[in-house]
Amino acid sequence: MNLKNKLKITGTVGLSLLLMSCAENDVSTAEMTKECLVADMVLHNTKIYTANDAQWTAEATAVLGDKIIFVGSNADASKYMCGDAQVMDMTGKYVYAGFTDSHQHVEGVGQRPKTLSLFGIETLKATVDAIKTFSVSVPANEWVQGRGWIEREWTDEKRFLTRHDVDSFTADKPLFMPRADGVSALVNSKALALAGITKDYPDPLGGKFERDADGTPNGYILATAMNIFRGLIPPKTREYKKDSLVQGMYENAKVGWTNTQDAGMPYVNVEIIKEIHAEGNMSTRIYAAANVKEAATMLERGRETTADNMFDLRGIKVYIDGTLGSRGAALLENYADADHNGFMNRTTKEALDPILRAALRQGIQVETHVIGDRAVRTLLDWYEEAFNAVPKSEWAIAEPRWRLEHAQIIPPQDQARLVSLGILVSMQPSHGIGDLNFAPDRLGPDRLAHAYPWQQLIDRGLIILGGSDAPVEQGDPRIEFYAAVTRKRLDGTSGAGWHPELAVKRETALKMFTIWPAYGAFQERIRGSVEVGKYADFTILDRDWLTVPEADILTSENLITIVGGKITYQK
Predict the structure, then answer these.
(1) How many angstroms separate the CA atoms of 527 and 98, rounded?
(2) Of 207, 392, 505, 559, whose CA is between 20 and 30 Å from 170?
(3) In angstroms, rounded to a whole number, what is the distance separating the alpha carbons of residues 97 and 117?
(4) pLDDT, tens only, 155-193
(5) Which residues fall within 8 angstroms of residue 429, CB to CB, at 6 or more apart?
């Protein structure tokens, strides 16, 4: 059975597997006769974490159509457990407000199983061996593609890959393999030759070619330099992209995401998503931002959404600096382990300023990739200048809710500016534990004091939109929640000067993946918590994340994902 058909019938099959009659010990015949309120689904005998401060936990919930109509006790739920209602006994299971990944790339998640994945390989040698084995299957003159290599995890050599590692077995075929961060990549000599890149070729604005001693590019490229090679690779077919989007949504539902916020969706994907929606094959909701390269289209067409809020395009995604691991993040001072301070200008102020002003006037959200403290400070300057340039009487909405994506290094004075300007931060806790392996070397001890400063932001009254940045990271809510509450590696270890006090409480972490991302997408009144009138989106696990030992979070399992009252994944 293909994936599309599986998605269409999964709600029916999942519910039939869990369908239970109204047992006499749940509600007596007399009670049923006295009162029977219409519902399509009832979850009971469980602990529900609602993400609603006014009613933090409940025992049962009832659903009619795609909305929640009851949240409360088992006893009070009995009036719904009758008629045609499908009653699901959740004994031994824990129900949560549906999890949201506030920063992801859905197509990339769906493509991950289709290309060479270098995630999780423990040595440089094994990584090169994997590329060599894969490249044998690629015909001459066709591109060798994959993703996910990450030198910080290697136990033999912790250095960037170069063309010298792969040229010997890829002489007749070009190679392009992004690092796990997606903001740098490995290319081979064949690819450099096809692009006409020699030692005399200058670095592009907002990018860089790392070079050998004689000035010849060594095959490790950063940021906008990647665009040169992407332009040479034959475009993926529409059917390939559609299949990747369907697969990506299913992979997300499988791990428990009910909604993902896609940071930088091309318009071709917008049209494909609409088609998938019309066919009934969306297994998660998607809130999307168009890529800044297509900002003119976004500003012309405006927000686009479906009536059931399964898809909502409302933002523009901007890119400013690189990543910390690649030494591309823009810092105020030089790297502690390099004689430069990174780079900016992946999008220039001259190009961005008119977009910001138009976005204010049209109610379009702006989401900007910034990682280093220089990028954060500069972008806040640009945001503030736009706010001051456009009279508030001309703003389409009073609270634009513009965002910083990643924002890994935020000095205290800029934390305060976030509050005064009303700017939101979308952060990925897994970055804060993965980067443990190199951030101390890159930043030094002083800057670590305000790196990945989750609790510092909470203490200032800010909210954090929690996400994963998949496929850059694994995209698993277990890892993100664990990282947020422990600030430790997955094996439970940490490092000197890593500031464990900046981890957050479990209740806070739950909000980071439920109600707060909903606010970050202007959706807090319709989803993000288990409340009457909101969409019936639930993540159902086999563990109580609010009480179990830390390590048990990582070994828990997602059992059922429900989106709009329909089961889109069941283990």
Answers:
(1) 8
(2) 207
(3) 32
(4) 999 999 999 999 999 999 999 999 988 889 999 999 999
(5) 452, 454, 466, 479, 480, 481, 483, 484, 509, 512
Terminal-to-terminal C-alpha distance of the chain: 17
Residue appearing with tokens 């450099």: 192
C-alpha span between 540 and 97 (Å, rounded): 9
Q: For 2-60, how does the pLDDT look when each residue is reduced to its tens digit (9 = 90+)?
A: 433 433 334 433 433 333 333 334 444 434 445 899 999 999 999 999 999 999 999 99
Instruction: Please choose, from the candidates 89, 91, 55, 66, the residue with its C-alpha nearest in 3D space to the C-alpha of residue 537.
Output: 66
Cα dihedral sign, 237-241-247-251 = positive
Phi and psi dihedrals of 407, rounded to 5?
40, 65
User: How far apart are alpha carbons 445 and 540 in whole angstroms?
Assistant: 40
Q: Write down the residue that tokens 């940045």 correspond to.
A: 469
Question: CA 358 to CA 418: how far, in whole Å?
Answer: 21
Which residues lie closer than 8 Å to 398 by C-beta, 6 or more apart?
392
Q: Can you read off the two tokens belonging to residue 72?
A: 């409360």
Comparing CA positions, the residue from 485, 495, 490, 497 lying closest to residue 548 is: 485
Find, among 68, 87, 80, the residue nearest to 18 by Cα: 87
Joined tokens for residue 168? 């010997």
